[in-house]
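Progress note, project year one: complex with zinc ion.
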Amino acid sequence: MAQHQGLAVAEPRSPSTSSAAQSRVRSPADDDWRCCLCGSNRFSPVYEWEVGHRRNPAVIPLGVWECECGLAFLHPVPKEDQLPSQGEWWSSGRPDIRRRRGFKRFREAFQRTLFGNPKERFVKYTRKAKDGGRLLDVGCGTGALMNLMAPYYECEGLEPSPVGAEEARRKGFTIIEATLEEAEIPPQRYDVATLQSVIEHLHDPVGMLKKLNRMLKPSGVVALKTPKYRGMSCRRHGREWNGFRLGYHTFLFTGAVLGRALEAAGFEVLESPRRDRPLDDILILWGRKVRAVSSAP
Ligand SMILES: [Zn+2]
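Model obtained:
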């Protein structure tokens, strides 16, 4: 069993009673699941949430598991009809569970004082990795990030929501209305790809990083922003961590694991910029394409 550094591991479950058997979360081993990063089938349970738990919006029990390589993932992934509609993801009306804001506000103010505005910093650091050229914002929503990037890059967006895509088009951007999985994009079209709050929703993150590799020119840069698994907030809140966003977040990464995923997809993790800032529960890594990967599975 893998080491669990600081997170409580789910109690071993008893298979002896029928009610326990019925409520038992389906394990990856039940489904012959293999890790998309290392190929292993040895996983440990991290947490599970029964049906009716306030964090579990699905009609089935859900679990987060960790591969021996450190990649954390949701299993089982509920089907669309096993989850309530979440609405447009960028909407402020999204039904999140709000926790007490005091500590978060204090931390954000402290970070702004020390490190500046996070959105502007993301633009600045991305320019440091690759300044200029054609940029694809994957999961662009209504185009907020492209607005900030537009002075420096020729921006295009990828957005599956017709409402978001239309709004971004009204701002003057070219939008491909598709998911990253569906999108048919010519090879070596882009210099930069940005993914904010996207990789944790994918069903094959390593495969999709390889797809991004093929879409990028040689030395192209990918910028990934995602909740930091085992970061400060994750450790503090444990099973109640918002980053689990149960039912919707399929994979969660530590910095080391995300770096290995980038390397597996033909990128090198850039030493500078590397990580957004300390004292945060958001992980940002920039990777540069250093080798081409084949389209074979
Ligand atoms: Zn693995």
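Residues 2-82 form one domain.
The mean pLDDT is 86.
No further modelling is planned for this target in the current period.
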